[in-house]
Amino acid sequence: xxxxxxxxxxxxxxxxxxxxxxxxxxxxxxxxxxxxxxxxxxxxxxxxxxxxxxxxxxxxxxxxxxxxxxxxxxxxxxxxxxxxxxxxxxxxxxxxxxxxxxxxxxxxxxxxxxxxxxxxxxxxxxxxxxxxxxxxxxxxxxxxxxxxxxxxxxxxxxxxxxxxxxxxxxxxxxxxxxxxxxxxxxxxxxxxxxxxxxxxxxxxxxxxxxxxxxxxxxxxxxxxxxxxxxxxxxxxxxxxxxxxxxxxxxxxxxxxxxxxxxxxxxxxxxxxxxxxxxxxxxxxxxxxxxxxxxxxxxxxxxxxxxxxxx
Length: 310
Fold this sequence. Notes:
Layout: H1 4-13, E1 19-24, E2 36-42, H2 46-58, E3 63-66, E4 72-74, E5 79-85, E6 99-102, E7 105-109, H3 114-123, E8 126-127, H4 139-144, E9 148-149, E10 152-153, E11 158-165, E12 169-174, E13 193-200, E14 202-203, H5 206-223, E15 229-233, H6 243-249, E16 256-257, E17 260-262, E18 269-272, H7 278-296, E19 305-307
Parallel strand pairs: 2-5, 3-5, 4-19
Antiparallel strand pairs: 1-2, 6-7, 7-13, 8-14, 9-10, 11-12, 11-13, 15-18, 16-17, 17-18
Helix pairs in contact: 1-2
């Protein structure tokens, strides 16, 4: 429960201006939708995160841990609870978004963007993380869901992951112990928060690494509707199928609900053409699921998380 006393306690922990009431979440979501959160809290290091989460747990306040909002559809009514983020504003360096290189190992905080990590690897002449350079989002969310693209995924490069559990316990898991699978890990079923990870790469030619990142960026530009707000691939890949092809075969390319649309460039993407409400986007996603199930007998599973009040 959020009280004035709780807010004052939180303000003593976090840096000035980083505990805010009624923060509009649209600016923190790649879909550009979302009403106000009761509380929005930016934390800068492990100590702040631990203390903030402990206070919120004691007050029985509902909490959502927000990365860069790239896999999220936030309701127009906002979120009744506290949104906590380790992702500092652009250009701000904190302990939770720092990237450090040690030989062939990169150690990065959970709030670091995948692009920042990919650029650090490139600059150090380390190969193996190029696939992630164009994936929007932060390391914490990417580890939790084993994000991947173009034949690469997090499980291929994770040496170890530090995880914070309720009660302030921190455990370090090996990559194998993280139990990575297709868009999942042990953290999809456990109440743990990624703090940092050690990423193991291999020595490579800096120019070759740069060329590969550029090549993948061009492929994304050519094939994906990057000019519109979206949450990336809307659906998981069904076993034996491709979501985009199923949607296209069902005649849904370009299908709209208000300003929400199935992309005409790539049917696996639902986009906001500019003024779509979260409710319109949600209705469109659910209609696509219904029609594809009727047309092909395949139940599409969302990659996008629905959060808050619609």
